[in-house]
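Encode chain A's predicted structure.
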Amino acid sequence: MITVVRPGPLALLQDLGRPGLAAIGVPTSGAADRGQAALAHRLVGNRPDAALLETVLGGLELRSDDPLWCAVTGPATAVTVDGRPVGTHRRVLLPPDVPLVVAAPPRGLRHYVAVRGGLVPPPVLGSRSTDLLSGLGPAPLRAGDRLPVGDPTGPLPPAVRLPPPAAVGELWLTTGPRRDWLDGTGWSALVGTTWEVSAESNRVGVRLTGPPVPRRTDAELPSEGLVRGAVQLPPSGQPVLFGADHPVTGGYPVVAVLTPTSADAAAQLRPGDRVRLRFRPGPAGGAHPVEPGAPATAR
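Encoded structure for chain A:
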């Protein structure tokens, strides 16, 4: 068992979510930054679908009843075990009743803490993910919560230390199903503006502020299906980048879709960050392009 001594501003249980249930109104949810969550699991030899902790702006302190391998990924920050610096993106051994502390990062937003064997509270609809929009899954963690740890399912991989992700300055787009709602002027505004991240951003979506993007029409759509990374353009002309806890449907045009790596990167944006949206056509067949600097796991 591990004990949450301090959860920080927000600490959640996450895994790969609840895919395949949108037809009955159940969102997918899951880790906001899937790449960093997968990397944490890989460092401790977990299955990709194991559950782990997702934290916002650090402040997390954990203790374990037993010796436990763990790894912290996400933006570079101070991580300590019993006051000793251990850093991110490496496997470390957490002795019994010794604090693991994840500090607030100077940039970026979310960290992932994986423990060998994964966390195994009871699943809800096949997942241990907390969905803040629908309310499905475990409640946000509180001080004193105790979390069971599962048995290892594979060999412990070789010890490595990997670099933290680069700062997010650009997000890459492919065209969305309602690209035709933008003329040349509107598209140029979308990809030519340096946007600022609004304080009204969360796991549901990242709201961007800047000069309004003009649409061809003020008409409205019947609700259509949404995916993680959908770039929706409401009548205000301020884009919304949908995240892991996006609703199943939405009624505003989706003019573009973030590539999977950029959807992960968007989950690390914090209020006040500035970002540009960049477009690169995918190759024939609609496959997503690989962004410059994308990690090997995204290729």
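The two ends are 36 Å apart (CA to CA).
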